Amino acid sequence: MAQQNALSRRQFKETEFNGMDYIFNYQPGEFVATIDCKRWGKRKKLITYMTFTDGRRVVAPTWPRSRYEGLANMKVGSRIRVLYEENRSGTLCIRRAVLLAEPSEIISRSELIQLMEQRG
Questions:
Q1: Are 107 and 79 in contact (CB under 8 A)?
Q2: Tell me: the pLDDT tens digits for 55-64?
Q3: Which of 35, 32, 33 lies closest to 47, judged by CA?
Q4: Structure pTM?
C-alpha cells in the first residue's frame, strides 16, 4: 500500500524532477515542509524531497524499521511537520513526521485573498 504514494526508481528517472537541488538537513529541530516528491531507493529506503517553509530544499531518507517515520502514506503536496534528532550514532535523521494538511486542503495565497474578500 505504501508504494502507491512513492515512485519506483524507474518511474523517478522518467520524470523531470531535479533532485540535485535538494540537500541533507544538518540542523536539529522541528520544521514545517511541503512534500515535493517521494521515491523508493535501494533496500526499501524511502527518499522524500521536501521544501521547508524557509525555502530550503531538503532530501530525507527513511527506512522500514522505523515505519518510514510516517512519511510512506503521505501524499506529494502534503504539508507536514518533521522532527529531526540525532540517533545513537550521532547522525541527524527524521524521528517523526506529522501530517498538517493534505494537498486538497491547501489553498494558494491568491485563493486565500479571494476567500477573504468574499467574506468582507
A1: no
A2: 999 999 998 8
A3: 35
A4: 0.81
Measured distance CA(58)–CA(25) in Å, rounded:
6
47, 39 in Cβ contact below 8 A? yes
Residue 50, classified by CB atoms within 10 Å of its CB into exposed (0-12), middle (13-18) or buried (19+), is: buried
**Is residue 52 a contact partner of residue 32, using CB atoms and an 8 Å limit?**
yes
State pLDDT tens for residues 61-119. 998 877 888 898 898 989 999 999 998 898 898 999 999 988 877 666 666 666 666 66
Element (H, E) at 52: strand 46-52
- Name the CATH superfamily, with its identifier, for domain 2-119: Nucleic acid-binding proteins (2.40.50.140)
* Residue 31 contacts residue 52 (beta carbons within 8 Å): yes
79-86 and 92-101 as β-strands: parallel, antiparallel, unpaired?
antiparallel
